[in-house]
Design goal:
about 325 residues, alpha/beta, Cobalt-precorrin-4 Transmethylase, domain 1, Rossmann fold, about 35% helix, about 15% strand, binds iron/sulfur cluster, 4-hydroxy-3-methylbut-2-enyl diphosphate reductase, oxidoreductase, EC 1.17.7.4, 4-hydroxy-3-methylbut-2-enyl diphosphate reductase activity, 4Fe-4S
C-alpha cells in the first residue's frame, strides 16, 4: 500500500546559460539569414531541441565539408578545435560560434598551459565533442583521462610539469576522485586556475543529491548523449535514490517504475526545455502524484551575450543579451 504520493522537483534544473545562448543563436541566424542554416553537430545534446530547430530550417551536419561553400554554419555549444575553424574558413563559410563561454575558458587554459610547456591531463570522455575541441587546442600536450581507473595507468613524460583540466559536464565527485588518484602518482600536479566543471552542472548535481536522499525513484529528463543528464542519474543513485532513470520523453516512463513508490524526484539536464519536464509532471499527477514540492539549492541568473556575429541586428542596433532571465526556459521546445 503506497502512502502519501508526492514529487520532489529539483531546482535548478533544465536550461543553462550556454544552452539558452546556443539555441537562440540558431533561431536568430535563421531569422537573419533565412533557412537553411547549417549547424555542426547537435547544437546541444537534446533530441527535442534538435528536432524543433530542424523544423525551423536548421540542417545538422557532422563536418564542415558537408556545408555548401559560402553558407552559414553554427558551431555548437560544445566547441570546436582550431582545425575545424580553419576548415570552415578554407571553405569560405560564414561561421557563427555558439561555443559556451565556459567551454571557451577551458580552451584558453589549454592553450596557456601548452604554451608554458605543461603536459595536460584532460579529464573527460574520449570522443565527446567538447573533449575533442579542447584537446584540439593543444594536441601535442593533451592526454585524455577517461575515469579514476585511467588515472592509475596514464603515463606522463615529466611528472614535475603536469596540470589537470576537465570537461565541463562531469560528476564533481568522480572528477575529484580522479584528481586524488592522479595526485597520488604525481604530487606536483597543478590545478586549473578555476573550476572547469561549470556552475550549471554543479548546481544540478547539488540539487539532485538533496532530492535523492528522500526519493524512491528519480526521473531525469535528458538525452542519452547528454553528459550532464547521464551524470544526474548516477549521482541520484549514489546519494540514496532507490531507482533512477533517464527519459527523453514522458512516454518512456514505465508504469512498473511507480510500483510501491511514494516519493518521485524529478530533474532535467542542462539542455532540456522545461516543457518536457512539465509533461512528466502532468503524467505523474495523473498517477496520483499531485503534491509537488520544489527543492531549491541555488538561484541562477547568469546570461551570456549572443555570439558576436549575431549581436548587430539588421537595422544596425546592437542585440547584446542572449535573452532575459530564463533559468529553464522552453523556447526551442515551446
Ligand atoms: S552545461 Fe555548462 S558548459 Fe555546457 S553549455 Fe551549459 S553552462 Fe556551458
Amino acid at each position: 500500500m503506497v502512502g502519501h504520493k508526492r514529487v520532489l522537483l529539483a531546482s535548478p534544473r533544465g536550461y543553462c546559460a550556454g544552452v539558452d545562448r546556443a539555441v537562440i543563436a540558431v533561431e536568430k541566424a535563421l531569422e537573419r539569414f533565412g533557412a537553411p542554416v547549417y549547424v555542426r553537430k547537435q547544437i546541444v545534446h537534446n533530441i527535442h531541441v534538435v528536432t524543433e530547430l530542424e523544423a525551423q530550417g536548421a540542417i545538422f551536419i557532422d563536418e564542415v565539408d558537408e556545408v555548401p561553400e559560402g553558407a552559414h554554419v553554427v558551431f555548437s555549444a560544445h566547441g570546436v578545435s582550431p582545425a575545424v575553424v580553419s576548415a570552415a574558413e578554407n571553405r569560405g563559410l560564414q561561421a557563427i560560434d555558439a561555443t559556451c563561454p565556459l567551454v571557451t575558458k577551458v580552451h584558453r587554459e589549454a592553450v596557456r598551459f601548452a604554451r608554458d610547456d605543461y603536459e595536460i591531463l584532460l579529464i573527460g570522455h574520449d570522443g565527446h565533442e567538447e573533449v575533442e575541441g579542447t584537446a584540439g587546442e593543444a594536441p601535442d600536450h593533451v592526454t585524455v583521462v577517461n575515469s579514476p581507473e585511467d588515472a592509475d595507468t596514464v603515463v606522463v613524460k615529466d611528472p614535475s610539469k603536469v596540470v589537470w583540466l576537465s570537461q565541463t559536464t562531469l560528476s564533481v565527485d568522480e572528477t575529484m576522485e580522479t584528481v586524488r588518484r592522479l595526485r597520488e602518482r604525481f604530487p606536483e600536479l597543478n590545478d586549473p586556475p578555476s573550476d572547469d566543471i561549470c556552475y550549471a552542472t554543479q548546481n544540478r548535481q547539488v540539487a539532485i543529491k538533496k532530492v535523492a536522499q528522500d526519493a524512491d525513484l528519480v526521473i531525469v529528463v535528458g538525452s542519452a548523449n547528454s553528459s550532464n543528464s547521464v551524470r544526474l542519474v548516477e549521482v541520484a543513485l549514489e546519494y540514496g535514490a532507490k531507482a533512477a532513470y533517464r527519459v527523453d520523453y514522458v512516454h518512456e516512463i514505465e508504469q512498473s517504475w511507480l510500483d510501491g513508490v511514494e516519493t518521485v524526484g524529478v530533474t532535467s539536464g542542462a539542455s532540456v526545455p522545461e516543457v518536457l519536464v512539465q509533461e512528466v509532471l502532468d503524467e505523474l499527477s495523473g498517477a496520483g502524484y499531485r503534491d509537488v514540492e520544489q527543492v531549491r539549492t541555488a538561484e541562477e541568473d547568469l546570461m551570456f551575450s549572443l555570439p558576436k556575429e549575431l549581436r548587430q541586428d539588421a537595422s544596425g542596433r546592437r542585440d547584446g543579451r542572449a535573452l532575459g532571465g530564463r533559468q529553464s526556459g522552453g523556447r526551442a521546445g515551446a
